[in-house]
Amino acid sequence: MRWASATGDRDDAYALIVKSPALAALLFSLLIGAFPGCARTYTVELLNKTEQTVRAELVTNEIGPNTVEGTSIRPGEYGTLGPADAAFVDTIRLEVRPQTDPYGQAARLVLSPGLTEAEIYTDGSWGKLHINPTRVGGRTPEEARNPPID
């Protein structure tokens, strides 16, 4: 195997990377891991406005669904998740279920990096849980839609 020379002969090195997916993946992961600023931090503050205890979890799809952190929140109380760090390429979401039904349908919210404040409520007769974000990244949803003009 030859390496690239000063004369610009890069074919062998290029072919090695292209023909070896494992090497390409290793180089990509080293590239991403080399930049500590690529990690993002997520924090969630929740108010449980339901009449039941709920289980809230931060979940990532790093390699399949993985719970990063979880907590139970009683009716009328606040709960905090995080701060949790995730790689730049990961998506973090909040999942909320009734404490009594750990495998039931979860209310989900994909999170933005930073602090998210939200309320958990039910839609009435069916008791389905919903998540209402009240502040995302330090701004209300209205402020995010209509940023101030300087």
Write the layout of secondary structure elements.
Elements: H1 11-19, H2 21-33, E1 40-48, E2 54-60, E3 66-73, E4 78-86, E5 92-98, E6 107-110, E7 114-122, E8 129-136, H3 141-145
Parallel strand pairs: 1-7
Antiparallel strand pairs: 1-4, 2-3, 2-5, 5-6, 7-8
- Uncertain spans: none
Read across the widest sheet, the strand sequence of neighbours is 4-1-7-8
The fraction of residues assigned to DSSP E strands is 35-45%
CA-based gyration radius:
22 Å
Give the termini separation. Answer: 59 Å
User: Helix amount, in percent?
Assistant: 10-25%
The major β-sheet equals:
4 strands, mixed
Please state the average pLDDT score. Answer: 77
What's the total count of β strands?
Answer: 8
**SS-based class:** alpha+beta
The coarse overall form would be: globular
SSE order? HHEEEEEEEEH
Summed up, the helix count is: 3
Outline:
By secondary structure, this protein is of the alpha+beta class.
Can you describe this structure?
By secondary structure, this protein is of the alpha+beta class. It contains 3 helices and 8 strands. It has helices at residues 11-19, 21-33, 141-145; strands at residues 40-48, 54-60, 66-73, 78-86, 92-98, 107-110, 114-122, 129-136. Strands 4-1-7-8 form a 4-stranded mixed sheet, with no helix packed on it. A 4-stranded antiparallel sheet has the order 3-2-5-6, with no helix packed on it. Strand 7 and strand 8 form a beta hairpin. It is globular and about 65 Å long.
